Amino acid sequence: MIHGSAPANVGMALADVDTPALLIDLDAFERNLNKMQSFADRAGLQLRPHAKTHKCAVIAGQQMALGAVGVCCQKVSEAEALVHAGIKDVFVSNELIGAPKLERLAAMARLASVRVCVDDAGNIDDLSRTAERYGVTLGVLVEIDVGAGRCGVADTGSAVLLARKTAAAPGLRFLGLQAYHGAAQHIRAYDARRKAIQQAAARVGDISRMLSAEGLDCEIITGAGTGTFVIEAKSGVYNELQCGSYIFMDVDYGRNRIENGEFFRAFENSLFVLTTVMSNNRPGLAVVDAGLKAVSVDSGLPLVHDRQRVNYVGASDEHGQLDTAQADDALALGDKIKLVPGHCDPTVNLYDWFVGYRCDRVESIWPIVARGAIR
After folding, report:
1. Whether 193 and 339 share a structural domain
2. Quick one: 302 and 201 in the same domain?
3. Is 126 in the same domain as 239?
4. Where are the alpha helices (DSSP H) in 44-141?
C-alpha cells in the first residue's frame, strides 16, 4: 500500500527532510516502548499493543521482541498487511461481516495465529463454516459492550449464549472476552475515568464467573487503552492490555487530567509532522505545507512543538496557518516546524513512511505497510 518514495534518506540531516513528513523521535519512542512493556511485566499481564496506531510491521516486530504476545488490528486488511510482512500473531479486535472478509481471515489463519471478535450468533455460524472450509481454527472472543455504546453485547445472558455457541462450533475456539472501553480513554477527569473502568471491570468479572460456572473458562480477558490501562491492571479482571497510542502520544491524550503519580504521564510525544514555512507575507501569520491532508484534526488542531508562542490556528487542504504575532523569533521562508498531531492514529494513516531520527539526523525509514487498510 506504499504509494510514493520516502521523504528522506538515512544519514540525512533533519533540516533536509522533504515535507510534509511523519517523524519519530527514536529516543522518546524507545522509552515509551520499554515503559509499557516493563509495566505489563511487573503487573503479570500480557501486552498485545494495538497496531492501528502505527500500521507498521517494523514497530510491531519491535513490540513483540520486547515481550508483546502479538498485536491487535481493527481491519482484516490491516492484519493481512502485517502478517504478510512477518507478524505471526494478530487479533482483529472487531467484528468481521460478509464472505469476502471471512474468507481472507481464514486464509490468513494458515499463515499466523488469528483471532477475532463476535457479538452475533449468525456471525458465529458464518465464521465456523468458513474456518471448516479452510481447515483452520480461529480463536474467538465474545465482545462485551462495557460502556462505549458501539459493538458488543450488553447483557450477561447474551454473552453466555454466544460463548456457548462459539465453544460448540467446529473450526472455532472460544478464548474469552473482548472488553475495551474506547470512550473512557478520553474522559478528562481521572476519577470519572477510573469509575467508568471499574464499572466495566465489574460487569466483565460477573460474566467471566458465570461462564466459569458453566465450564467455559476465559483464557483471555482483554481490553484497556493508553488512558486507562493502569485501572484495568489493578482490577484483577483483565489479563491482557491493548494499549496503542502510548508509543506516540498526541494532543488529545495530553488533555487528560491525572492523579499525582499516575503512570500515564510517563509517556512522551514521539510522533511529529515536519512541515515547512511556505509563505509569510502577512504580518503575524505564516503558512506551512501541512494542512488537512497532512495532519488529522478530528480531535483538534495540532500543537507547534519547540516554538514559543507560535500557534497552529487553521487548516485547509494543503495549507496550515500559524499565528506568529507573539512569537519570540520570526519565521523565515523554508523554516522547518514540528507539529504534535491532535490524534495520532488517523494522522499516521495519511503517510507511507515513518522517518526515525536521533539527534537531528535521520536514522531509519520504516514503511507504513497497512496505510489505507480500511476493509
Report:
1. no
2. no
3. yes
4. 57-66, 76-84, 99-108, 121-134
d(CA 112, CA 85): 11
A 10 A CB-CB count for 199 gives 14
pLDDT in tens, 280-316: 999 999 999 999 999 999 999 999 999 999 999 999 9
pLDDT value at residue 260: 64
pLDDT-derived band at 259 (thresholds 50, 70, 90) equals: confident
Residue 122, domain member (yes or no) = yes
Residues 209 and 290 in one domain: no
Same-domain status, 167 and 235? yes
CATH code of the domain containing 130: 3.20.20.10
Query: What angle in degrees, to the nearest 10, is found between the helix axes of 156-168 and 190-213?
Result: 50
In terms of domains, do 165 and 108 share one?
yes
Which SS3 state, helix, strand or coil, does residue 71 take? strand
Using one digit for the tens of pLDDT, what is the confidence trace for 1-34?
556 799 999 999 999 999 999 999 999 999 999 9
What global pTM score does this model have?
0.96
Beta-carbon contacts of 9 under 8 Å, excluding residues fewer than 6 positions away, are 362, 365
pLDDT cut 70: percent of the chain above it: 98
Dist CA 139 CA 218 (whole Å): 12
Residue burial 240-260, b: 16+ Cβ < 10 Å; e: rest: bbbbbbbbbbbbbbeebeeee
Q: Which residues span the domain enclosing 215?
A: 88-243
